[in-house]
Amino acid sequence: MRPLPTVVILVLPALALALQGGGPPPAEAAATPDTAQDLPDELTISAHTEDLIKRQFATCDHDANGWVSFREARTSLHFDRGKYQYHDPDRDGRLSSSEYREYFLDTLGRSGSVTPPIPAAGTALPPQRTPDQLRSAYDLSSDGALDLAELTQLLLDYRRLDLPAQQALVALDRNSSGKLEADEIPGLSGILGPQDDSGEQADGPLPTTILELFGVAQARAGVSAAAPHPDQIVGPVPPFVRLDVDRDGLISADDLERLQRPLQLPVRARAVLATLDIDGDGLLSEDEFRQALGAPSQD
Question: Which of 16, 82, 187, 202 could form a disulfide with 242 if both were Cys (CB 3.0 to 4.6 A apart)?
């Protein structure tokens, strides 16, 4: 393959991100000693939080003996020896439920959230549930909806570690309430496996992959009909998917020109395509796209 100009190598991902927007939200800045906030001396902990602490402790306690060993903490919490000893102040080599509670509240106070522990390998998956059953099982706050913490625990229990809870919430929360309400929870069903109350699949096939869940193109709001813009993909999908506007598995000159409108860019889409089109068929396959970005061919 002939060498490619730097501008050509960079232009396609730039088009994908700049013109269509979206992608995963920026990661929150990690707490530092300067930004961390200590817990107040007197803190009222809600029943919701206490239930969440108990559930997480049970997840870490793989053998259900009432305490968490270093091996269990390393598996479920990614603790190293120093962190384990720090949260085991009596140095008895056991993380008790009260010590886990202190760890949870300390982490919550300093960073604003606590990453749920990972279940032990071989732990049975939860049973298949209908949307109503999912809400009943994970709505610990009893507000009729699933918040971010509850959704995080749900996805973890069902081993969907590939689905970031924050991104799933943004994708399924149609009314932007910050929670998944009763009419939004069925969007999780195809991922987790349950059916609706009648035992039939609800409203046709449900999404089962990240691409199906997050890769839906949406018309941009507030765009003038006189200056049409390409549809927007809000979720985290690969750049190739963003550039393949008509979803036929190939990037064409028409795809790139549709993405450019109504902008006037100093790069000609057809010239870029011709430069990267190895087999000369006038189209860019995913393998050709990967090679243009420096990845080896999959053939």
Answer: 16
